[in-house]
Amino acid sequence: MRIACPFCGPRENSEFSYLGDAKPKRPGPDAGEDAVYEYVYLRDNVAGEMAELWYHGGGCRAWLQVRRNTVTHEILSVEPAAGAGAASVTP
Amino acid sequence: MSAADQTQRLAKGGLIDRSKPLGFSFDGKSFAGYHGDTLASALVANGVRLVGRSFKYHRPRGILTAGSEEPNALVELRTGARREPNTRATTIELYDGLVAASQNRWPSLDFDILSVNQLASPILVAGFYYKTFMWPAKLWEALYEPLIRRAAGLGRAATQSDPDHYEKAWAHCDVLVVGGGPTGLAAALAAGRAGARVILCEEEPTLGGRLLSDGGTIDGLPATDWIAQAADELSAMLDVRIMTRTTLTGAYDHGTHAALERVNDHLPVPPEHQPRQRLWRIVAKRTVVAAGALERPIVFGGNDVPGIMLASAVRTYINRYAATPAKRLALFTNNDDGWKTVDAAIAAGLTVAGVVDARQEASADQRALASKHGFAVLNGVVDHVDGGRKGIGSIEVALAGGARATLEADGLAVSGGWNPSVGLTSQHRGRPKWRDDIAAFVPDGAPPGMSAAGAANGAFLLTDCLREGHSAGAAAAADLGFGGSVGAAPSSDDAPASSLTPLWHVAGKKKAFVDFQNDVTASDIALAAREGFQSVEHLKRYTTLGMATDQGKSSNLQGLAIMAELTGRSIPQTGTTIYRPPYVPVAIGALAGHHRDENFHSVRLTPSHHWAAERGAVFVDTGLWKRAQWYPIKGEKDWLESVTREVKAVRGGVGFCDVSTLGKIDVHGPNAGTFLDRVYINTFSTLAVGKARYGLMLREDGMVYDDGTTSRLAEDHYFLTTTTAKAGLVMQHLEFCRQVLFPELDVQLTSVSDQWAQFSIAGPRTRDLLCEIVDPGEDLSNEGFPFMAAREVLLRGGLKARLFRISFSGEMAFEISVPARFGDALARNMMIAGEQFGVTPYGTEALGVMRVEKGHVAGPELNGMTTAADLGLGKMMSTKKDFIGRVMAGREALVAADRQVVVGIKPVDKARRLRSGAHVIRKGEIPGPDTDGGYVTSVCFSPMLGQWIGLGLVSRGRERIGEIASAHDPLRGEDYEIELCHPVFYDPEGGRQRG
Amino acid sequence: MKYSIFSLARAALSGHRNWPRTWRDAEPKPRYDVVIIGGGGHGLATAYHLAADYGITNVAVLEKGWIGSGNAGRNTTIIRSNYLLPGNIGFYELSMKLWERMEQDLNYNTMVSQRGVLNLYHSDAQRDAYARRGNAMRINGIDAELLDAAAVRKMVPFLNFDNARFPIQGGLLQRRGGTARHDAVVWGYAHAADRRGVDIIQNCEVTSFTRDAGGRVTGVETTRGTIGAGKVGMAVAGSSSRVAAMADLRLPIESHVLQAFVSEGLKPLIPGVMTFGAGHFYVSQSDKGGLVFGGDIDGYNSYAQRGNMPVMEDVCEGGMALMPLIGRLRLLRQWGGIMDMSMDGSPIIDRTPVDGLFINAGWCYGGFKATPASGLVFAHLLARNEPHAEATRFRLDRFQRGAMIDEKGQGAQPNLH
Predict the structure, then answer these.
(1) Is B354 helix (H, G, I), strand (E, B) or coil?
(2) How far apart are the first and last CA of chain C?
(3) Confidence of residue A91 (pLDDT cuts 50, 70, 90)
(4) Of B316, B402, B503, C383, which is least packed with CB atoms within 10 Å of its CB?
């Protein structure tokens, strides 16, 4: 598998670490235990196109949001994951 | 034997080099061959027919094919540490002195005891073992299974380490062409001319593919001349790389391919510094599969008798190797292509015994040829062949009208038609599609960027191959924007399309083999159908059809055709099994490359490593690091003596230890403090500049992730350390928090683990030592540099260092960081400067002893299953802020009263050794699932207490301080009393580290 | 027809023409007391135990393809009960005990072969962790032995003891561990369940659940029509999230690909099962002679049932590091299965929030060895509506309660388990 890192170019997947589905957003401080439980534990586990988080630890150390098809492994897009896990970004 | 003894060698012709005779041995007998031979062709030339025994019935077997799909002619190649089992004789390039032996027979190939299995064959049907060997249960491991295991298997592995080496490499190209036959050459020419970067992989040592066996005329040139011309043109192109002896074995995601180059397999021993094989990872934007097609056998009684060979293989042996598999040859075919073998036999001066053609009628040309050469053309099928290890006895023919005939011959060429090589194109689980006109599957659903051309795509005519190859190569290049002129497609004027009438199986009473190597017969398939194993996957698994080393290349289609017939379905309805990599088996050594022995993983050395090695340090592997474990000195009898000395020296004077393996991260930015507040359970934004603080971070699920010390070096600059084990992972985690969760924070992270050499200097005389190292202008007094202070200092000589007054040992201690390149010098200087104080370097063991004495938690306690409270650090959790893991840490089971928490443990008998991994049971209770109350996590011999001590995770441990419990260690046969105690064994008030 | 050497010999006289089907090719009935979704080892074992132990025989097993075509037929066939934590340890030992009598229970030779499972260790820390584990096993009445390097060398002298990057210091041995013939387990359960009246329905894919007004599951829609059910149990590891989604459930599970590999056939070399403690590699040798080996999961969510090169290379590197004599042996075939990787590495066997729907999922890469016990405890749950005594901790709500069973201590990241 090859991931086109927006900073480093196409690289072999062994340079990357995988975290998983990019959809869950970290709940805010007052969201309560149920919301955090869902964030930490429950997954859609999509069969098909999914946005997911990869870390280019063998390269630029950027966290990337990759749209990939989990059935065919086709990669549709790669972009920096800035803020992808935040429920809301408070400046 | 001399070259003259090659009784089956034609006097002239072939592509062998008769000026280079070679000697070799097979099963201890010496033979001769020529450069350019394979082991198989040389055996054919020497009249050797019997080359192996089958898997189950130990039936005698001969060579069936001339390629990597060979199911029968497997040998053990070479001897000793280089013994290579299951090697296809058909792919072994002959070299002088080659030694090969047949396998799966005892005592000899001619006389194989286990061929008695043939007598039991009425019972040894498909899946017989599932129905028996069940009673009595104990006999399976004791008797039945060992017998089966010994009888099964093919060759023997070497019994010594592989002495050769293998390497791995990457290659990148625009267009990858798989196969160097006419299709592949045409494709490479077109793509190369267009300007694309091209790699062409060819499995064999020479280009040409079937042209080398079947000849032909291309663009007016004889095939071999055209090959040479094409090769010359390709070689002249700078961006074209031709890789022979290289098999493309797998197609993985996003254009990544695996290819195996047999760099030196054609030599007895690789030349010095050269690998035996090389694994290529080829990344290609487009792939043209020009891997050709494989001829398939027909299933009939006795179709495994040595002397029966695929028709195309017979032609290969005659035309390419000038070796004749028979003197008197018969042909059994269902198509015109098979007749080419008759032409080849006649041209080589062989007698043709007759042709059995399953089709309605032979053509006028074929009848004319027969009458000219005086052989019969029989319209019918070969019903069975009698014979055995000495070869063919007679060929029994059932004629179309119902009459019978017999042919006398010592060779039978068989052609059941051709199967395009759909293996590579189907590796992403695209299923090939059926074509009735050629009665074969052709590629469909190939991985993105991959296309098939020529015979691999079901185009069997030479001129079609050339045209398809050229057009596929041109299209691939054009697709990528290469616009150079591709020239005209090469062309040929070979015979018109071959007609074929599908014929898979001739019913009869004799054993008719579908999978030769695994001894799967037509009746086994019928049995599978009868018992309900009708899906191709069930069929394969129940009968082992297609699971031999050829992965079904010579057997699968016949097998599923028979199943289709039995179940009244069509072949495409019956379907195929899944095609999986590798296309041909690949040596495990090649897949491992250099990653073996000491080079299995890389080695990381600490900055003081060489100095420590000079002192005779004993090193321990910590992840990839080699760390000094202890520094023995002359006369010390064991590790314990050395470690005890080191601990006493530190606690009584001063010592130092290289702790550079800790992860080190610089945190910069106006929001650095806020950031750290969110990732640690305790607060860092309030930490004063010039101070350090112990920090603990959780995973989001509330469990402890890592710990370390963080120092504030400036308003907007923190420096944190992680544990050695988690150095990389914590960096990843913090980057996740920074980039993904908290993008609004203005903070930057820099890993500086490799930039700083860091030493812990500990003991009451630490300050004395430091004064010798640090510039006299720096105030190191207890007031000027109090406990938990941290700042940059100047060393004598002007080097800047970072100094932290932190203590893991519980002694008055500092950690000092210098740029990594000065680590070695600092160690040497501390030894010189500290000599007057008896400075003692100490290793990780002494470090560990002192941390257990102080009750500090480390890896064994930070095991991913403990909470901060479990570790006695619950009070550190701030209630004033949100942080990673806060919410989940509050779940009911994580705050339950009966959790296992850290306590100290001492054997009641002070002389007794305590061992990690012993479980803790309440005194008087019987060890069992309900009474198992924890375990010992860390132990050491404490020089200060004069006994073994330890830490443990014990249920309700903090309430039980002072309780006498039992350590239960059945693995080591030990049970003894222990006292649960406070985890800080030494200086519990902490006065020493503050002093 | 009862299978035995005698029936086999009798059948030989008639050319094996009279063997009946191993299991009937059942047509779906309109309604069953229990419908099991998934004709793998777990689903078939569940049906078998429902019929054999709980007297519930009006049972259908629905399989979208052919029985055993999922993970039951794609694993590396290892059986063991060398677990560490309460919840797992008793459950897997129950499984081991069922393996030990499986052939007699099922009248089918599943080739359960207790040739031992040896986990090698290469550091003091690993030794201590294995000591903790081995003692936990012994406390639970399970066999375990802690070997030193000399004892390991005596057992498997051909390992790399002399110039290894991470020298072998010893191993944890469970002699009762070993392997079983995976396909035969499927067929054996199918055979035995079928003989007790269970309908095994192949090529029958569930497309949705039917539910009553109260939301209770009343049956399933399938590619072969509607089938009513008193209770529905799902045993579809690899596809659990997809099937659960039909009932609007989200699970603490991700699907990951795990590759496995087999070499060409060889004369006996490897005595039992071995795991390499300094890399990702484990190996056994099948009765047919192939070395069966594997390592880590590929690490990314996948439903593709195929993997990539880095893991294949990593596994072979581990193999060569451990056994440098295998350099010239060839990898014959690689394949991939889709694992239900749960959030703590342990399975889920429980009722679901949806009435009438029961779940058996989250097996990670430990599903094969669990097959018999999984069938038994799931049958118990379906029959009695309450967890079996050995499955009380495999609850779906354990993540909410914080009662994870996390043997590796990796937390809620499935690809690290």
Answers:
(1) strand
(2) 44
(3) very low
(4) B402
H helices of B274-407, in order, are 311-315, 339-347, 364-373
Asked, for residue A86, whether it belongs to a domain, the answer is no
Which residue in A13, A18, A44 is closest to C250 by CB distance? Answer: A44
Of C336, C259, C334, the closest CA to residue B581 belongs to C334
Number of H helices, E strands in chain A: 1, 6
Residue C145 pLDDT more than 70? yes
Chain A CB contacts of C300 below 8 Å: 1, 13, 18, 52, 68, 70
B297-416 has the same fold as B166-293+421-479: yes
C-alpha–C-alpha distance, residues B101 and B80, integer Å: 12
* B401 Cβ contact list (under 8 Å, min separation 6): none
CATH 3.30.70.2740 fits B166-293+421-479, yes or no: no
Residues of B in contact with C22 (CB under 8 A): 531-533
Q: Which domain holds residue C335?
A: 117-172+259-342
Token code pair at residue C226: 């509607």
In a domain, C15, yes or no: no
The answer for B893, left when phi > 0, alpha when psi is -120 to 50, beta otherwise, is alpha
Q: Is B594 on the interface with C (CB under 8 A)?
A: no
Q: Which residue of A has its CA nearest to C313?
A: A14
Alpha-carbon dihedral of residues A28, A31, A33, A38, nearest 10 degrees? -70
B932 in Cβ contact with B919 (< 8 Å): yes
Residues of B whose CB is below 8 A from A55: 732, 735-736
Peptide bond between residue C252 and the one before it cis (omega within 30 degrees of 0): no
Chain B residues closer than 8 Å to A80 by CB: 739
| Residue B958 neighbours by CB distance under 10 Å | 15
Tokens of C289: 């002679």
Q: Where are the domains of chain B?
A: 3-132, 166-293+421-479, 297-416, 503-569, 604-660+756-851, 663-751, 897-995
Spatial neighbors of B282 by CB under 8 A, at least 6 apart, are: B170, B171, B172, B173, B176, B199, B201, B248, B256, B257, B258, B259
Distance from CA of C232 to the nearest CA of B (A): 26
> What confidence category does residue C92 fall into, taking pLDDT thresholds of 50, 70 and 90?
very high
Residue C18 maps to a domain: no
Q: Is B406 within 8 Å of B396 (Cβ atoms)?
A: yes
pLDDT value at residue B2: 56
Interval C285-312: pLDDT, tens: 999 999 999 999 999 999 999 999 999 9
Superfamily of domain B604-660+756-851, CATH level 4: Probable tRNA modification gtpase trme; domain 1 (3.30.1360.120)
**How confident is the model over B671-697, as a mean pLDDT?**
98
Q: Which CATH number fits domain B663-751: 3.40.50.300, 3.30.499.10, 3.30.70.1400, 3.40.50.920?
A: 3.30.70.1400
Q: Which residues of B touch C306 (CB under 8 A)?
A: 427-429, 580
- Do C203 and C57 lie in a common domain? yes
In chain B the first and final C-alpha atoms are separated, in Å, by 90
Separation of alpha carbons A27 and B153, rounded Å: 58
How far, in Å, CA of B394 to CA of B387, rounded?
7
Tell me the residues of chain B between 716 and 745 that have a Cβ less than 8 Å away from chain A. Answer: 728, 731-732, 735-736, 739-744
Question: pTM of the predicted model, to two decimals?
Answer: 0.97
Q: Where are the alpha helices (DSSP H) in C54-145?
A: 88-99, 102-106, 124-139
What ranges in C196-268 are assigned the alpha helix state H?
A: 240-245
Cα(C322)–Cα(B601) distance, integer angstroms: 12
The reply to whether residue B589 touches residue C326, judged by beta carbons under 8 angstroms, is yes
CATH number at residue C331: 3.30.9.10
CA–CA distance, B593 with B595 (Å, rounded to integer): 5
